[in-house]
Amino acid sequence: MSDRRSILPLILGLLLMALGCLFLLGNLYSFRIQWFELLKFVIPGLLLWMGLAKLVRHFTWDEAQLLNRPKKAGLLGGIFWTSVGFLILFEITTDIDALGIFGHYWPLILILFGVGKIIDFYRLKGRLPFRPAEVVGIVFIMFLGFASGKAASVPLRLVDFDVPWVIGERKISLGEFTGKKYRWEIEERIPLNGAQLFEMTNLYGDIRVDTGSSDDVEVHLSKVIFHRSEDKARQIADEVILSSEIEGKTLRVRTNREELDRNYRFNTHFTVRIPENLQLRLHNGYGDIRVSRVKAPCDLENSHGEVEVEFIVGDVKITNKYRPVKAAHIEGNLSIENRRGRVQVEDVAGEVEVATDYDSISARRIEGNFSARNHFGRVRVEAVSGKATIEGSGSQVTISDIGKAVRIENSHKAVKVAEVSEEVELDTSYSRVDLSEIRGAVIVRAAHSEINGEGLYAGVSVQARASAIDLSDITGSLHLATSLRRLVVSDFRGDAEIQNEYGDIILSLEDPLVGPLSASNRNGEITLSIPSEASFKLSAQASGGKVVSDFKPPSASSEQDMEVLEFVAGRGQPEIRLQTTYSRIQIKKRD
Questions:
Q1: In the chain, where the domains are located
Q2: For an engineered disulfide with 546, which of 325, 376, 505, 561 has Cβ 3.0 to 4.6 Å away?
């Protein structure tokens, strides 16, 4: 008789007991089980079980068992599947982004695997070999981790059975695969009776609002019922009732969906015409909202559907999730709070504030201040008459034609700023920065970045770490500091104070200096090219290095290298002070 034991019968027994209890409770107490919600937990539960089972076997089996059945007790597989199962469960039960978390923290799997191999070395006296399959697994996890980090920048979600699926130009809900579709239409005219605010609440359907010629509210309701039987579909349609009430100055319109059997599958699509000066408040889910030609404030809340507004005279506030938002031709302030959905804004005469994540923001022709927040997406802004403020961690930022100051915070993606009339202030890291045609002062704080600028007309201040700097055509004061990377400045007009360490400084002047120049370096070269007819007073010192100059004092020979060089050319103004350590200073004539 075999001594081999299996835990599988125990697990199957427990699962059957749990399933039987669910059915029994459903029969005894007539409550409905949301099977689709339960199915969401099946896959992560199986992954978690598989991963934990591998880990338990790996650390409880002896050497012979591990060598004979390596796939059943794989350490790397156990860590990986346990991690994936936990992340998917957290995605379902909380508000975290599993893909983004995995894309960011996947190296922890390698760390845990390394710790496990060290434990195996001491536990099994080094007798467990490193299998080729583990090498393949490590390469696969690295590839998956890098791919997940990239994929996290697009709006991906786990399957939600309630969300309509978009196929081509058509939206199809789950109900269309489980029954036929029937449609009934009703229309109602609702008097306002002094109400100044129209409020509508809907779920699983579209809302379209436009202005009409009447002083009343005209509501067209399309009931779309999914069922195999037309008679049953008609019965459901009859049970769906449109209700309205006036409370104070608010007219509220909704259906009785919450009172109906939750097993009914139906959509309610509204087309509404309102007086143009009536304020609007809409609450919708799993459907689109379209609003146009309203001359009053609008407050729109939606999820899992597109929102589009245009030709609005009044303030507009939009809250949405998982689908795009578009706003155009707005005469008033605009606020958009989106999640994992594209935001597009055009032609707004007012203040604009927008936010999203893992998708793009585009805005143009804004007659007021503009602010945007994004996370691992893209921001493109042009033609703003006021200030522009961008917060974009992990986001690419492109901004141009701004009438006032610009303030940007970002990381890990490129920043392009052009044609700004006032000050530009930028905080960034791990990015590439391109600046051009800036009329105001430029202030940059950066780490591990590449900073390029051309046509900066009111001075530049850069405080950077481990960042390359390349600037040209600069007017005004220069205050630059970095480390570990090359610093290049050409054609600057103004006083300059420049610092670097463990990286070269390269300065080139097409015209004579108009202000003092101070450049200090540590363990890096300094190269200065200036016109041959320039006037200046030079002091150059290279401690532990050499000074090489095309401009020679009368007492120095043309072949002589020096550690210290001081002399006066022309009028002796302005003053140039160059200093480095353990490296070389070169002073070249530029003809």
A1: 8-151, 173-315, 495-591
A2: 561
